[in-house]
Amino acid sequence: MTDLTVTFDNTVHIGRPTEIVTFGRAADCTVCLDPEDISVSRRAGAFEFVHDGWRLTNRSTSRPLSVIDERGLRKVLGPGQRLPVEEPIWVLVEGTRSHRIRVDVPISHPQPEQTLSPGPPTVVGEKVLVTAAERRTMAALFVEYLRDPPEAVPKPRSYQAAAARLGEKRSTVLRRIEYLRARLTAAGAPSLTGHNALENLAEYALSRRLVTKDDLRQ
After folding, report:
1. Which residues of 50-74 are buried (b: 16+ CB within 10 A; e: fewer)?
2. In this structure, which of 21, 37, 207, 218 has its CB flanked by the most CB atoms within 10 Å?
3. Which residues contact 3 (CB under 8 A, 6 or more apart)?
């Protein structure tokens, strides 16, 4: 059994597998976020060790929680929903301001066994070579996903903002990303065209580690 480390406002709490770590507005929560912020549920959520691992439960009856992993990918946890905590995460509780809780656990879960089914393999763009310039451009566009701690609602920056960060023209940044999206789409990557193309590219690139926090330091 492993301990859970919860950090909020520079205060660290070590959760033992024999206890339930709660957080919310109520003063008797293990982690009291802000007793004056009435937009936060009294019992917003809890971490509990169940069987062989920690679980996060949204204990609010009306408010969602946002969970952001180390890659910058965001999940929304609705009231009553649960989520295994198998890697370090940020939990964001929205009130009159965004309350950010850092959660650390040892990463010890085994990799799932690969069982091949008959038929051709799924093609999702693995063979597309991403250039250093394209990585830098994605880092500039998706910086809100990669920041630590992340923004409450990560979203791509505008092409103009990314161009300013890179010291390039907007048209150069736009053409570079359009060419990357076209190559990935041709190689089978889904949903990289249309209204939400840039958001979908962010999630695809982060999940495939085409861009990481290390690229912010390049």
Report:
1. eeebbebbbbbeebbbbbbbebbeb
2. 21
3. 14, 15, 16, 17
- Residue 122 and residue 114 in contact, taking contact as beta carbons nearer than 8 Å: no
Tens of pLDDT, residues 66-109:
999 888 888 899 999 999 999 999 999 999 988 999 999 987 55
Which of 143, 200, 189, 198 shows the shortest CA–CA distance to 166?
A: 143
Can you tell me the distance from the alpha carbon of 137 to that of 157, in angstroms, rounded to the nearest whole number? 11
30-75 tens-digit pLDDT:
999 999 999 999 999 999 999 889 999 999 999 999 999 888 888 8
Spatial separation of the C-alpha atoms in residues 63 and 94, rounded to whole Å: 8
E strands present in the chain: 4-8, 11-15, 20-24, 31-32, 45-50, 53-58, 65-69, 74-77, 82-85, 89-94, 98-104
**What pairs with residue 218 in β-bridges?**
none
